[in-house]
Design brief:
By secondary structure, the chain is of the alpha+beta class. It has 1 helix and 8 strands, in the order αββββββββ. β6 and β7 form a beta hairpin. The longest helix is centred in the first third of the chain and has 52 residues. The radius of gyration is 23 Å and the shape is elongated.
Amino acid sequence: MKQQKGVTLIELMITVSIVAIILAFVGPSIQSILIKNRIVAEINETSSLIQYARHHAIDEQAQVVVCPSTDYSVCSTDWNDPKIVFIDDDDNAIRGATEELLVTIGATSEASLMTNTTDIIKFTETGEANLATEILLCHKDGEAVYARSLSVTLQGRVKMSTDSDKNGINENADGNELSC
């Protein structure tokens, strides 16, 4: 008698059915994980940019500005634009020809929406911020479970939102749940 090599059609159909059922349950979870990871990556990149600006202000004993800008010179009010960091020698929130562009990051992704309570963030020579501010990053669908925020204190410290009560929605530095 010959020994069978391979699988029968019924065995193959059962295997494909099991894989389809597993994917039907796991698929939405994977999409949620990917959205959360993208939001966290963007908020981490923004946090790094702000912390770099503060440390540079202290190191160089100069006023440093963080702001969105479409042309990498004039600050805009739309935090979805690319963000720039520069030393603002003349205190006009416009990067002049002699003012060095220190670092930039790209625009917020198409699937995200970033807002800020202030147009620009200025750091003094001591690392203090001109205003306390909160940057909110949301997914385009507006679900609060994806929202993340950065709070910049008057002392210049940057704090990321956390989910302290473990309900799936992050809270800002004041303890209020984030909403988009």
